[in-house]
Amino acid sequence: MAPGSPTAAPMPAAYVARDPWNSARPGVLVIACSDGRIQEPVDEFLATLGVTHYDRLYVPGGPGGLTASGVAFVRADQFRRECAFLIQAHGVADVYLIFHGPAEDGPPEATCADYRQKLPHHTPDQIRAQQQRDADELLRNGFGWNVSPRVHSYRCEVTADGAVQFVSLASEPAPFMPPPPLAI
Fold first, then answer.
1. Tens-digit pLDDT profile for the chain (184 aa)?
2. Pick from 8, 29, 62, 184: most CB atoms within 10 A?
3. Which CATH number is 28-168 given?
4. Residue 137: how many CB atoms within 10 A of its CB?
């Protein structure tokens, strides 16, 4: 049986959680990939930043779903609308964007499946570069919302020895420059 798979033990009529309900809104939204292989490391990393109570938006590609990456315009627009709702309705002040994939020396199977689907002919290095461009786009252009939370951008990377590291993607993005006019 795979780790994390349900056991054959019968379910009680009601399960009571160890922690009581917390009525306070966290004020923090984490947008990450739904890939179950990274969830515990993400929680551990966020705890080192003091982030332990947060709203979660886990979808294929995580923050990559907020950008078209060249192909998924309708999906990106819808995802941004969903994020805007969460940010407004929950009073979110901080958004953490967590991309993921292999480190430069990491195993290719750690590549985000959503990015592999959107960019099927790209190498893990090319996908890593696209994730940086996507993070830069989000940091440079915002989210197109009538909200302006603080945005923190990271990449969860798996190294050759299986370690999981988090690197900041908060490089100062180049200012937006429209493409030059077409010569006719």
1. 566 666 667 778 899 999 999 999 999 999 999 999 999 999 999 999 999 999 999 989 999 988 877 666 788 888 888 888 889 899 999 999 999 999 999 999 999 999 999 899 999 999 999 999 999 888 887 766 677 888 999 999 999 999 999 999 986 543 333 344 545 5
2. 62
3. 3.40.1050
4. 16
